[in-house]
Specification:
Number of strands: 0
Strand content: under 5%
Shape: flat
Low-confidence stretches: 5-11, 13-26, 93-110, 633-637
Number of helices: 35
Radius of gyration: 34 Å
Mean pLDDT: 89
Helix content: 55-70%
């Protein structure tokens, strides 16, 4: 109960932490795993893309409602910006007594605005001092914005003297100090009592009434921020009752807010009945504000405050009230921010909610699968619900069955095929239909389903997922290449602009690095539809592998391809082609790999191939060719398909078996350079190459004899070439 109460009380403070990224198993940055990459207004109206189990409750409820309503959702999406309010993004930092913490002008946080500069000057602080600026702006954003607006107003008054404005700024700084001390007390680790911060003092009667009333407001704000709620309530009530007070319209609302804070702070251990009585008394105060037409500007903040008060003070009854309301998808869940309040109150375990409300059961079923190694139990539960639910309620459960299963019955397949293209669930259903058909071995049907969806305009994450499935069902190297690349959905893409498909996910990396033979790599590097930097990297990988295996024909083809894409490589490619022996071809490849930063393996982000600065070159071409762990789906469905059976897998296994016993790139290059120094002692590249070997042993992937190798290369460099620039740049071995 206390846990629920604490979660509810958060409604009166900053909102819940928002995800900053979708990183997770199998690079979920390609999946929009926790939050839709579709604009929230469109998601709210039924454009769901492919649903993910990592999504927060507010998104999954929104999806449940859309699927329940079907195509009708487009005509009744609910309150505009409702989902943005529910997930807190409309407020920037979240809730703050029903008032926005975000959307403010730059003055709220600038360290060089007039308010900050003037305050710093009055207090003798350095305006560019980060700590000083934080002290000046320690209060919540709405309070800071309001302070700046007040400062601008009073500074423009004809009776504004320097002494009066400076006095107001000093008092405002005292309010800010109270905010800071309250924040420190909330998170303090120290046990010693903090020094008392002095409150602003009343102005003498000789000062004009306007300035005295402003000071009264600052004194009330200081009491409130310092959590002296009885005192702040009395002061705010007096302000609301004082005709002509510049803050009179705020007085009653702020007094109510003070009383709400006091009640919540004192009610942690009080029984539900007592808290219910307190809530009713506070609602009566709020109703008096709502009945006063003169306070119309404060009606909406008052309603929001009363809602957050109910959630914080009586979370049990408020949760049940909200849950019953959300049962009917025809209700607007965003009206009065009911969905947002329900989501906060649901933090913690509420098995009773799952038993009593179908949408809560559906959300928990979907989310639980994202937390499990196997989803068998969730899939069975979803299937049972789908089979026995009333027809009008089956839509969400069909989606859950498809999401969570590894096989589908003919009845499920028939139902999935019957979902219309105007249904909000369509993209999710078709994606999982393609996946399940692939798992059944019906690869041609899986390709047809995925291709059909990909003809539509899709969000980047939705497109990524369908490309994953289409890639997994590919029939050839060329076919697979068409679906190899993905978009990082963490990158912002302006509305209407096509996102770049320029990155490899784990499935593509495993396919290129472990499933393709040399001939396949060369074929892949020839495909002009792929980005030139990626083609160059693939050609470079093929060239290195061919050099290590002494496969001359594939090596010449790969080198020529790379030289065509990166002309600076042409001399090295020619040197390789003209080399008369395996050792010389191998040496040529290893030197080119270090000089151009090539790798024997593809990487997620394929940078442009260009010559590396000579003093930055290292042997970073590969770590190991030994078999990796079998490619799998880290958390069952979430859930990257395995690479396609495209390419000569038998030849790839044979080649990798020959490469597997080899040392790391550092060890291989080091041994090669030391042998080359014996056989070609006059090679002018040797000083640089010995430097590269020593630098490569500094870290990264190393063999057991790396230290010995480093010492040998260092000693040879300094013995044979002591006056070279590379000896001077190599003062140590590692």
């Amino acid at each position: 109960m206390k846990r629920m109460f604490a979660a509810a009380a958060a409604l009166l403070c900053a909102g819940g932490v928002l995800a900053s990224g979708d990183y997770g198993p199998a690079y979920t940055m390609f999946k929009a795993y926790t939050k839709p990459d579709i604009p929230l207004a469109r998601f709210q109206a039924g454009e769901l893309g492919v649903l993910q189990p990592g999504m927060r409750r507010v998104y999954l409820y929104t999806a449940w409602r859309a699927i329940m309503l079907g195509p009708e959702i487009a005509r009744r999406p609910g309150t505009a910006q409702g989902l943005a309010r529910a997930d807190g993004s409309a407020f920037g930092n979240g809730w703050s007594d029903g008032r926005s913490d975000g959307g403010t002008d730059g003055a709220a946080s600038s360290g060089n605005d007039d308010f900050t500069l003037r305050t710093a000057a009055v207090l003798g602080l350095k305006p560019d001092d980060w700590a000083a600026r934080n002290r000046i702006d320690a209060c919540p954003v709405p309070a800071r914005v309001f302070a700046r607006a007040t400062f601008a107003t009073l500074a423009a008054r004809p009776d504004a003297t320097k002494a009066r404005v400076d006095g107001w700024l000093r008092a405002q700084y005292q309010v800010s100090e109270a905010c800071q001390q309250a924040e420190d007390a909330r998170y303090a680790w120290r046990e010693d009592k903090q020094p008392e911060i002095a409150p602003p003092q009343p102005l003498p009667a000789s000062e004009p009434a306007y300035w005295r009333m402003l000071r009264d407001y600052q004194r009330a704000a200081w009491q409130f921020q310092g959590e002296y709620y009885a005192e702040s309530t009395a002061l705010f009530e007096r302000i609301g009752a004082t005709k002509g007070h510049p803050m009179q319209s705020l007085g009653a609302y702020l007094a109510l807010r003070s009383e709400v804070r006091r009640a919540v702070a004192a009610a942690v251990d009080e029984p539900p009945g007592q808290r219910e009585r307190q809530a009713r008394a506070l609602e009566q105060r709020g109703e008096a504000i709502l009945a006063d037409a003169a306070l119309a500007a404060m009606h909406e903040p008052t309603r929001a405050l009363l809602r957050s008060m109910r959630a914080a003070l009586t979370p049990e009854s408020r949760l049940e009230e909200l849950a019953r309301y959300l049962d009917d998808p025809r209700n607007d869940p965003y009206a009065l921010d009911r969905l947002g309040d329900w989501s906060v109150l649901m933090d913690g375990k509420h098995p009773d909610q799952r038993a009593a409300h179908a949408y809560a059961d559906w959300i928990e079923t979907v989310q639980a699968c994202g937390r499990q190694e196997t989803c068998d139990a969730q899939a069975a539960h979803a299937l049972e619900r789908w089979q026995h639910a009333p027809r009008a309620q089956r839509g969400p459960w069909l989606v859950a069955v498809l999401m969570l299963s590894t096989a589908m019955t003919p009845e499920v397949e028939k139902a999935a095929l019957a979902v219309g293209a105007d249904d909000p669930a369509w993209a999710t259903v078709r994606y999982h239909l393609a996946r399940l058909l692939r798992l059944q071995g019906k690869r041609e049907q899986a390709r047809a389903v995925a291709d059909g969806v990909l003809q539509r305009t899709l969000s980047p994450a939705t497109r990524n997922l369908l490309r994953e499935e289409r890639f997994a069902a590919a029939t050839s190297v060329r076919d697979a290449a068409g679906y190899l690349l993905r978009t990082n959905v963490d990158y912002y893409v302006p509305e209407g602009e096509r996102p770049k498909e320029d990155m490899l996910n784990d499935d593509g990396l495993a396919w290129i690095n472990r499933n393709l033979a040399l001939a396949d790599l060369v074929e892949l590097a020839r495909i002009e539809a792929l980005p030139a930097p990626l083609r160059a990297r693939i050609a470079g990988a093929a060239w290195i592998r061919a050099g290590l295996l002494d496969r001359q024909e594939e090596g010449r083809q790969a080198a020529a391809l790379l030289a065509g894409l990166v002309p600076a490589v042409a001399p090295a490619a020619q040197r390789y082609a003209q080399a008369p022996s395996p050792a010389e071809r191998r040496h040529a490849v290893l030197v080119a790999g270090a000089a151009f930063g090539l790798s024997a393996d593809a990487s997620m982000d394929s940078a442009k191939v260009e010559r590396v600065a000579a003093d930055e070159a290292t042997a970073s071409m590969w770590c190991s060719f030994k078999p990796e762990q079998p490619f799998g789906e880290p958390r069952f469905v979430w859930r990257l398909p395995p690479p396609p059976p495209a390419g000569d897998a038998g030849a790839a296994r044979t080649e990798l078996a020959r490469l597997a016993p080899m040392k790391t790139a550092t060890g291989t290059l080091g041994d090669d350079v030391l042998a080359w120094a014996d056989s070609h002692p006059k090679d002018p590249e040797l000083p640089w190459l010995l430097h590269v070997v020593v630098q490569s042993t500094r870290g990264g992937c190393l063999d057991d004899d790396a230290k010995t190798l480093s010492r040998k290369a260092f000693n040879l460099l300094h013995k044979r070439y002591p006056k070279s620039e590379w000896a001077k740049k190599t003062p140590y071995f590692y």
